[in-house]
Amino acid sequence: MTYALAIHGGAGTILRSKMTPEKEAAYHAGLARALAAGQAVLDEGGAALDAVVAAVCALEDEPLFNAGRGAVYTSDGTQEMDAAVMEGATRRAGAVAGIFGPRNPVKAARAVMERTPHVLLIGEGALSVAREAELPFGDADYFHTDSRWDALQATLAMRAEGRETDDPARRHGTVGAVARDRDGHLAAATSTGGMTAKAPGRVGDTPIIGAGTFADDATCAVSGTGHGEIFTRWTAAAEVAARMRHRGESLEQAASHVVMQDLAPNDGSGGLIAVDAAGRIAMPFNCEGMYRGCVTDGADIRTFIYR
Ligand code: ASP
């Protein structure tokens, strides 16, 4: 049995016209580090769940991506993070929304799954589960990046003029991972700071099981990135699995239908990564780029940004 791992660092990529060779190299290196972290787990016969959490932690620790350290700011200048994990064998899931504190929100989501009878926790309840799990916390300095702060100021200035930013890198981003382990089990994990200048209290698709995150051994594991409100209204991640289950579509067909036919015409810019029970990977997106990469048993790590 072989393993497969795919990750994304968000569909809100820097426009190609604004990309520099140095930045591009830094993004590829960040993606490769996250793939290596997940691959190390799978190589040793570890569980898909452990692999996706390891990969997402590496992406959360990397300030280039909008999750954990480097998360975007709300319109009030605060940071509110959402994350989820789901295990395909049992359909157990855990999620947190609107939290600030745990360095790795994905671990807080996992703690909700493993330490409570609930799926989604917010506020002080979510933070106390993270504290009980002895997860490391960070302060405002830890999470701050000048580039996200500047993006907020630019977005607020444009908004004051009645304009919305046309730069996806300024607007959003997310990180995620999906894996199939050597035992044939699937898992998905997603983590985000959400969208720049979002209203305080706004929750996107990331922690909503079936919208931005989903896993079921019988079909696929999915992690999405893009315009969260649309992913939520179209239940994007669950829809990929539903098309496979009910219509008998392949992973590639189902994933690309959801991204190109459901989301794209409805203002749902973005993409997703998905893996099926056989370890096949799909990574469709309907915008300029999506930071992404994959690795399978015995193959080299591959990372991509644009088409
Ligand atoms: N889906 C995320 C959200 O809406 C943002 C993104 O992936 O770009 O919170």
Q: What does the model show?
A:
The chain has 307 residues and is of the alpha+beta class. It has one domain (4-304): Glutamine Phosphoribosylpyrophosphate, subunit 1, domain 1. Helices cover 36% and strands 22% of the residues. The protein has ten helices and twelve strands. The chain has helices at residues 21-43, 48-61, 105-115, 123-132, 140-143, 146-160, 168-171, 228-233, 236-247, 251-263; strands at residues 4-8, 81-87, 93-99, 120-122, 175-180, 186-192, 213-215, 220-226, 270-276, 281-282, 289-296, 302-306. The chain has an eight-stranded mixed beta sheet with strand order 4-3-2-6-5-1-11-12. Strands 7-8-9-10 form a four-stranded antiparallel beta sheet. Strand 11 (289-296) and strand 12 form a beta hairpin. It is globular and about 55 Å long. The model has no long low-confidence stretch (mean pLDDT 96). The structure holds aspartic acid (ASP).
